[in-house]
């Protein structure tokens, strides 16, 4: 606003009012009728112009605040007509309106952008007013999962499906929970998490619903495909020679029965063939027992174990094997008093298996070295690492090393890493592999 022009105009009108009041005062004191009449008219004229001058600006400000109150930022104030201070005031109002409109447009664009993103994700999201039940927002994914049309209030769900209503809207899930939902004539496995937030004086609840039925089915299907592929290969390798040898023996016996004199039966060959079938059958039985061992580990005998003691046990067990292979081994422990709550028998089994793999990988490698290390992260988690500078794992088979019965060794059963992974999952931990062919491998056990 042009404050100088405003002050000058205001001062001029106040001065005119003072002059008119002075003339009126002189007329009353003298007394002089003409002076009184002139003073009265001049005072009325000065008061009118002063009032009109002030009220115009208050009216303009009142109009502006009224538009702000009702969020009407499309109002335009004239910038070309009227006194200079008024046009400057109008310019300020218009600038505020343009700024707020620009902010609103940006917020609306961001809202639409966020809305489109949430519509595209394959996770159901709904937010509603806790007191009134009015739905603030719900994406298509949650409507599709619940098999409901668009609804404006959660009472719609309560009327159509009370049990579902209680699970979704009445039950509070402090952490992400896997919940079976009865949907029509089928049970749907979903992950549910929710939170309550405040907006002004209202409380809203945000519910996130993820349908894991399809994901579980797909993962289960892929796991079965990999498992059956490996099992089929192993079983066929055992059955094919058994079948071939049995057929050969059957032909020899049948020929002997048909013509004993022309087809003499060699008892030694027959005995040798039967023994071969027996050995192959035992191998197949051993394979089946090996498969069953994947499901044996279901419970843990947890105890606080000093990692230094764990490493000493491993060193006693593995030192001869490592020395016989001319491999250097290092045991690194930052804190000798570091403890971890584990089933020591099972974790020893995991570490021995990993060290045997490292010994195999370091075979015929110059300056071969294996390192077993442990440290505690800042978040309190403990990591045990087995690393070597061996042959490494080829990129094309990295994804298969945890598949049961998968092995690159001629004498390997293919369950070592699979069993190690299951043991780590039982400890609520995980196993991670980093490897480069020709450089070495690092396997981390993260508890």
From TrEMBL:
CDD domains: HATPase (cd00075). Residues 230-447 form the Histidine kinase domain. GO terms for biological process: phosphorelay signal transduction system. InterPro entries: HATPase_C_sf, HATPase_dom, His_kinase_dom, Sig_transdc_His_kin-like_C. The keyword Oxidoreductase does not apply. It comes from the Bacteria. Pfam families: HATPase_c. It catalyses: ATP + protein L-histidine = ADP + protein N-phospho-L-histidine. Keywords: ATP-binding, Kinase, Membrane, Nucleotide-binding, Transferase, Transmembrane, Transmembrane helix, Two-component regulatory system. PANTHER family: C4-DICARBOXYLATE TRANSPORT SENSOR PROTEIN DCTB, SENSOR HISTIDINE KINASE. This is histidine kinase. It comes from Aequorivita lipolytica.
């Amino acid at each position: 606003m042009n404050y100088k022009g405003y002050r000058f105009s205001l001062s001029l009108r106040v001065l005119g009012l003072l002059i008119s009041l002075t003339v009126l005062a002189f007329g009353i004191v003298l007394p002089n009728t003409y002076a009184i009449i002139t003073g009265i008219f001049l005072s009325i004229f000065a008061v009118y112009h002063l009032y009109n001058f002030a009220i115009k600006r208050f009216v303009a400000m009142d109009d502006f605040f009224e538009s702000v109150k009702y969020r009407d930022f499309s109002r335009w104030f004239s910038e070309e007509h009227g006194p200079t201070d008024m046009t400057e005031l109008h310019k300020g109002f218009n600038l505020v309106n343009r700024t707020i409109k620009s902010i609103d447009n940006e917020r609306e664009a961001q809202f639409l952008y966020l809305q489109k993103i949430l519509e595209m994700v394959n996770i159901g999201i709904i937010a509603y007013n806790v007191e009134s039940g009015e739905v603030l927002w719900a994406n298509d994914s949650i409507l599709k999962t619940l098999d409901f049309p668009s609804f404006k209030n959660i009472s719609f769900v309560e009327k159509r499906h009370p049990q579902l209503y209680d699970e979704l809207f009445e039950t509070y899930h402090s952490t992400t929970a896997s919940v079976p939902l009865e949907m029509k004539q089928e049970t749907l496995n979903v992950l549910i998490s929710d939170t309550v937030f405040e907006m002004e004086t209202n409380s809203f609840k945000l519910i996130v619903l993820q349908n894991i039925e399809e994901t579980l089915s797909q993962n289960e299907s892929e796991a079965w495909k990999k498992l059956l592929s490996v099992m089929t290969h192993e079983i066929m390798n055992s059955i094919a020679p058994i079948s071939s040898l049995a057929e050969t023996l059957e032909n020899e016996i049948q020929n002997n029965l048909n013509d004993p004199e022309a087809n003499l039966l060699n008892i030694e060959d027959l005995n040798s063939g039967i023994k071969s079938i027996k050995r192959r059958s035992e191998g197949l039985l051993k394979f089946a027992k090996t498969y069953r061992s994947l499901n044996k580990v279901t419970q843990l005998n947890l105890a606080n174990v000093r990692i230094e003691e764990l490493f000493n046990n491993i060193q006693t067990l593995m030192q001869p094997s490592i020395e016989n292979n001319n491999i250097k081994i290092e045991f690194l422990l930052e804190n000798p008093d570091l403890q971890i709550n584990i089933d020591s028998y099972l974790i020893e089994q995991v570490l021995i298996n990993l060290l045997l793999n490292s010994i195999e990988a370091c075979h015929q490698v110059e300056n071969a070295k294996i390192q077993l290390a442990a440290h505690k992260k800042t978040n309190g988690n403990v990591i045990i690492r087995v690393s070597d500078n061996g042959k490494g794992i080829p990129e094309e088979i990295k994804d298969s090393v945890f598949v049961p019965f998968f092995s690159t060794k001629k004498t390997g059963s293919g369950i070592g890493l699979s069993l190690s992974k299951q043991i780590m999952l039982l400890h609520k931990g995980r196993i991670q592999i980093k490897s480069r062919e020709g450089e070495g491998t690092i396997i981390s056990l993260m508890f």
